[in-house]
Amino acid sequence: MSDAGAQFGLERPGGEAGGRAVLRLSGRLDALGAAAIWRPVLRAVPPEGALTIDLHEVPYCDMAGASLLVAIEAARPAGPRPTITGASPRIAALVEAARTASLRTPHRPAAAPRPWASLRAGWQAALNGVAFFGELTLAWIRLPGRRRMLRMGDLLRYADQAGVRALPLVLLLGYLMGLILAFQSAIPMRRFGADLFVANLVAISLLRELGPLLSAVILAGRTGSAFAAEIGTMKVNEEVDALTTMGLDTMTMQVLPRLLAAMLVMPALALALDIAGLLGMATVMNAFGFPLVTIAHQVQSAAKLSDLFGGLFKGMCFGGAVAVIGCRAGLATGVGPRAVGEAATAAVVGGIVATVLLDGLFALLFYRLGL
Amino acid sequence: MSQPAIRVHGATQRFGARTIFRDVDFEVATGEVFVILGGSGCGKSTLMRQLIGLLPPSAGDIEVLGVRITGPGRDGALEGLRRRIGVMFQSGALLGSMTLLENVMLPLEMFTPLPPEAREAVARVKLGLVGLGDAAELMPAEISGGMAKRAGIARALALDPPLLFLDEPSAGLDPITSAGLDRLILSLRDDLGATFVVVTHELASILAIADRCIMLDRGAYPDAGGLIATGVPRQLREESTDPRVRAFFRREALPEAAA
User: Fold this and answer.
1) Residue B166's beta-bridge partner residues?
2) Are residue A180 and residue A274 in the same domain, yes or no?
3) Where residue A71 sits, what CATH number does that domain have?
4) Distance between CA atoms of A93 and A292, rounded to whole angstroms?
């Protein structure tokens, strides 16, 4: 009796045609042993006719070995069930348990994908989006009666998270953007002797477009994703359900403070980015030999107050969009470990896309209004 | 009886200044179902984490399947040991990105040379054993807590380990499923000769499956928790003089002084 590895032999005492076949197994039938003979045995067993499996020389058999014996039975759907001889009571019980277990295991083919499924899912997602806005509007309308649920502490905490903590990043990015814009445009404009007007160009583009747009992108990356992950984790931990069953409105308690905080801090962030960008531009212009007072005068004459306030107003709207999309992504979080990550991704992507789309709409609107 | 499956001597666990338990001694014989009992907060799960090598004890010696997993050489010892033990965590701890079948096939794929169709056949048998044969293609997120727990047992069984650790196998299960699980444990002990270490406080389950048990208590020593009883559950229920043990087995409230 060899202890290392399993072996098998097939004998046909009654000759090749018909008669009883005997499959003699030997050695340890654990995962290692079964692995060594699994395929050859299944190929060798005759598909029909009586079969005896002889286990006299199997000293040890575990579930993997029992699975092999059951697989042999399953491989001969036409033949009679093989007779097992020489099995100790323990091995016999094990094989019986494996047989019962595999009887309860119907192999089900994967469900065929239904036509239009993705289209229908997209339509459903769009409807859900509309429903979300409806609920959000309702939450606004009902706010006077539910002021208690809108907790000031939460709002300030979100404002701190979205605004104050983003300030260093916004200042750094704004300064560098101003620096780069001024430098890149100064070189070609110098050829026409128009390098003084770099100040006008950078001031207008920062105040009207880049200030709000860049701070919205920062907000989407830093805060929109955080909102989605926070609410998504709450959803996964059934905290959102707990709030609902306590009669507390998720929209009022979780979404509104985040929305308000984002709308509150965005004009400030955009303004900070504007100022940092102008400073960056001034650094370059100063290095090109223009005195600071000239640059300041140039900015003052080029940019109107309406440019600044238009930009800050846009920033506020972008902030609202990013927050709403982040919260919505969080509330739409599914189940499973990947869901929260997916929600955060959806929040960032959705936030940036919505910001750019809104910016396009504002460009049209401001043009029509002659601003 | 051959060499014990587990030998614990003087196991102690401290977290900061707090001593969860100290001087815990016991042995688990090969082929028995051994239950660790105790009220919540007494360190049952902490003790189990020590036994499965997730938590080095603050002091004491632990030997599992003849391998010493405390002191120097611990990491090397654990590496070889981990394929020979199966662990079911309280929540099942299934990997969320794979179906139940793939979860059970994972250890087979990593540690055995079985061809893919054989891995699948073995995994399906294991799932069938815990009554999840028709749920093999579901994702963990799609099943209930009790099903996740049973799938966790199927995964722990994947490599036919000689030693299995089950953390609260019947908590949160309905009595029928729970009784089925008890029968499964007993039949695996009888058919495979497997040793089980079970952490639980389900009285019915303890009396049905446990060959022997130990009981931990937070107040075993004036300053720390520890072992307050070792023995056969039925005997402890009938004969123990310790009020805490009697209270546990008879589901009585403790007298004020002892609590």
Assistant:
1) B88, B198
2) yes
3) 3.30.750.24
4) 93
A175, two tokens: 């300064």
- For residues A58 and A176, state if they share a domain: no
The model's confidence at residue A168, banded by pLDDT at 50, 70 and 90, is very high
- How far apart are the CA of B210 and the nearest CA of chain A, in angstroms? 21
Tokens of A116: 């239009």
Distance CA B32, CA B29 (A): 6
Q: Per CB distance under 8 Å, which residues of B are interface residues toward A? A: 96-97, 108, 111-115, 117-118, 121-122, 124-129, 131, 133-134, 136-137, 139-141, 157, 159-160, 187, 190-193
**Rounded-to-integer distance, Cα B28 and Cα B162, Å:** 13
Burial of A171 (0-12, 13-18, 19+ CB in 10 A): middle
**Contact between chains at B96 and A336 (C-beta distance less than 8 A):** yes
**Neighbour-count burial for B86-98, b at 16+ CB within 10 Å, e otherwise:** bbbbbebbbeeee
- Residue labelled with tokens 């666990």: B13
- Are A209 and A279 within one domain? yes
Residue A196 belongs to a domain: yes
Domain boundary among A104, A138, A172: A104
Q: What is the dihedral of CA A298, A300, A305, A307, to 10 degrees?
A: 20
Taking only the tens place, the pLDDT of each residue in A215-271 is 999 999 999 999 999 999 888 888 888 888 777 888 888 999 999 999 999 999 999
Residues of B171-186 as b/e, b for ≥16 C-beta within 10 angstroms? bebeeebbebbbebbe
8 Å CB contact of A64 and B160:
yes
The answer to whether position A319 is within a domain reads yes
Per-residue pLDDT reduced to its tens digit, A36-64: 889 898 888 888 888 888 888 888 888 88
Partner-chain contact B190 A93, CB within 8 Å = yes
**What is the C-alpha separation between A44 and B149, in angstroms, rounded?**
39
Span B49-58, pLDDT tens digits = 889 888 888 8
Instruction: Tell if the pTM clears 0.80, that is, is over it.
Output: no
Cα(B19)–Cα(B190) distance, rounded to whole angstroms?
A: 38
* Reported ipTM: 0.73
User: Contacts by B40-45 with C-beta closer than 8 Å and gap 24+?
Assistant: B40/B201, B41/B218, B42/B216, B42/B217, B42/B218, B42/B225, B43/B13, B43/B216, B43/B218, B43/B225, B44/B199, B44/B201, B44/B216, B45/B90, B45/B167, B45/B199
Give the pLDDT confidence score for residue B256 in this predicted structure.
Answer: 56
Phi, psi of B196 (to 5 degrees): -120, 135
- Report yes or no: A117 at the B interface, CB cutoff 8 Å: no
Q: Kindly state whether residues A194 and A71 are assigned to the same domain.
A: no
Q: How many domains does chain A have?
A: 2
Q: Which domain holds residue A24?
A: 6-104
Is B114's CB within 8 Å of A30's CB?
Answer: no
Question: Are residue A198 and residue A338 in the same domain, yes or no?
Answer: yes
What span, in angstroms and rounded, lies between the C-alpha atoms of B86 and B165? 6
The answer to whether position A14 is within a domain reads: yes
Give the position of tokens 């196991």.
B11
Contact assessment for residue A336 and residue B140, using Cβ atoms and an 8 Å cutoff = yes
Pair (A78, A224) in one structural domain: no
Q: End-to-end alpha-carbon separation of chain B, Å?
A: 39
